[in-house]
């Protein structure tokens, strides 16, 4: 509360009082008032004074026996936490769950939070859902601008480059970013207004730069009938915050067999968010599958799908991103199935706080639970695919290293052959040079005419003697014809390997 954002930013905020003041009073939320048989009232709140005025105006309405109110909050701030937390008596841990999102902590991290106990979670009035959001950036500058924008949020998030750019099809310089998103939902009763149900949904902001991957997630809303007189006015892919507000406004989406809409219940607080998260997960699964298929094509046809001079190590580097990320994705979805859905079912059905959680059953959420099960199965298949590709890439790297070793060995044999030739040439001419120098010590060359033949008679036997000594010392294995024979034999064996 004193920092007004993640505690890790305390030092930098002390140097910028204006930024700290902005973070403290930041207010962006939407108040939704539901009533059976009528359209919900949507009221955007963008300043602190209006928020306090709205909270003070909440009263019990005898005509609406079970008032249901929802606050959808984007980002967090000190004043918003104080206003909503004090009005509805909310556990501070609810807000703490939303502030940071780390996959792991350093040993000396002061903000690390241990895992929760199941026995503690069943008494809570809130739950969290984690997911991944992808965004396409056409250039590095666009990605850097988005990174700076994420740093201006009060919740601590990190925009990661997936490092999976594919030169064959992707635009030069384009980047697909990955943002781990956290959504926390609180459901309780407002004793000051006759025990009406109140929900608070905490959402992450959306960067203004870039576009959603493939421009939109799947649409699950029913198609209007030909006889319909009204068509829902909805624009998706505006932002994470705006999309969930629009989906919430249209709830319930499906009509009964009699053509009448279902009555509003507490599921309106959770289902719009869960449906949107589930649709976003399907985009992630399709994207990872596409990137893995590209790596497989590179392994299958390296001469076509690899850049000039690009080694297989680049495929391993791209694959390493998914080796690290996919297990984290599975953990997120497993947490949703084992904790979020059971708690959502318990809180929306007014169960006793001591009722044990049942991860295998989701009363009221039977329609969306199979989709999360399907996503978990897809991620499991993708992880197995990553493991198989890792083995294949490691084998190809080993084969490539062996091939390079053979080429180096062949080059070394050729150099040894050349050096052997030079050595034997030197061996042949050194004795002759020695004898020549010995006979040249005479000052008169004419006197050598009668003894010129003695040079050859002496030099040739001396050369043969030196060569014989070299043969004996070398073990009889350093002759040039043996090197040539060995080299020729290597080439013959290499041809056999290529044919086989």
TrEMBL record:
InterPro entries: CorA_TM1_TM2, MgTranspt_CorA/ZnTranspt_ZntB
Pfam family of the protein (one): CorA
Primary localization class, coarse: membrane
Topology in the lipid bilayer: Multi-pass membrane protein
GO terms, molecular function: cobalt ion binding; cobalt ion transmembrane transporter activity; magnesium ion binding; magnesium ion transmembrane transporter activity
TM region(s), chain numbering: 422-440, 452-473
Region annotation (Disordered) ranges: 1-22
Keyword Protein biosynthesis: no
Localization terms from the record: Cell membrane
Keywords: Membrane, Transmembrane, Transmembrane helix
Biased composition (Basic and acidic residues): 12-22
Record has Transmembrane as a keyword: yes
Superkingdom of the organism of origin: Eukaryota
GO cellular component: plasma membrane
Name of the protein: Cora-domain-containing protein
Organism per entry: Bimuria novae-zelandiae CBS 107.79
């Amino acid at each position: 509360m004193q920092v007004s954002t993640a505690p890790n930013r305390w030092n930098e905020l002390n140097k910028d009082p204006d930024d700290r003041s902005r973070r403290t009073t930041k207010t962006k939320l939407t108040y939704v008032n539901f009533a059976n048989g009528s359209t919900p009232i949507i009221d955007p709140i963008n300043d602190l004074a209006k928020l306090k005025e709205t909270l003070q105006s909440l009263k019990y309405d005898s005509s609406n026996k079970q008032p249901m109110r929802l606050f959808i909050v984007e980002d967090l701030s000190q004043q918003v936490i104080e206003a909503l937390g004090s009005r509805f008596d909310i556990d501070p841990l609810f807000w703490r769950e939303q502030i940071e999102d780390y996959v792991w902590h350093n040993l000396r991290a002061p903000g690390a939070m241990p895992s929760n106990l199941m026995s503690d979670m069943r008494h809570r009035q809130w739950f969290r859902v984690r997911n991944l959001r992808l965004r396409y950036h056409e250039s590095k500058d666009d990605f850097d601008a988005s990174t700076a924008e994420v740093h201006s949020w009060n919740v601590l998030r990190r925009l990661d480059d997936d490092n999976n750019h594919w030169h064959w099809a992707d635009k030069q310089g384009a980047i697909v970013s990955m943002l781990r998103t956290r959504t926390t939902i609180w459901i309780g009763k407002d004793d000051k207004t006759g025990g009406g149900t109140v929900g608070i949904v905490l959402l992450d902001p959306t960067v203004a730069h870039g576009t959603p991957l493939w421009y939109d997630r799947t649409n699950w809303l029913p198609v209007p009938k030909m006889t319909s007189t009204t068509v829902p006015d909805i624009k998706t892919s505006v932002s994470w915050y705006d999309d969930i507000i629009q989906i919430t406004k249209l709830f319930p989406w499906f009509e009964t067999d009699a053509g009448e809409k279902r009555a509003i219940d507490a599921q309106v607080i959770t289902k719009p968010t869960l449906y949107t998260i589930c649709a976003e997960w399907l985009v992630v699964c399709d994207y990872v599958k596409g990137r893995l298929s590209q790596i497989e094509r590179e392994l299958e046809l390296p001469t076509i799908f690899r850049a000039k001079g690009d080694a297989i190590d680049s495929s391993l580097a791209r694959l390493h991103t998914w080796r690290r990320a996919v297990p984290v994705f599975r953990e997120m979805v497993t947490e949703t199935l084992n904790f979020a859905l059971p708690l959502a079912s318990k809180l929306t059905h007014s169960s006793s706080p001591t009722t044990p959680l049942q991860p295998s059953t989701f009363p009221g959420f039977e329609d969306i639970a199979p989709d999360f099960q399907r996503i978990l199965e897809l991620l499991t298949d993708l992880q197995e695919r990553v493991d198989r590709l890792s083995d294949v890439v490691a084998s190809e790297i080993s084969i490539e290293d062996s091939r390079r070793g053979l080429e180096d060995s062949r080059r070394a044999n050729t150099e040894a052959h050349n050096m052997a030739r030079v050595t034997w040439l030197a061996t042949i001419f050194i004795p002759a040079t020695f004898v020549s120098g010995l006979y040249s010590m005479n000052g008169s060359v004419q006197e050598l005419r009668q003894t010129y033949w003695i040079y050859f008679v002496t030099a040739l036997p001396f050369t043969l003697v030196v060569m014989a000594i070299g043969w004996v010392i070398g073990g009889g294995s350093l002759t040039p014809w043996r090197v040539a024979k060995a080299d020729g034999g290597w080439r013959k064996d290499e041809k056999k390997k290529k044919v086989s």
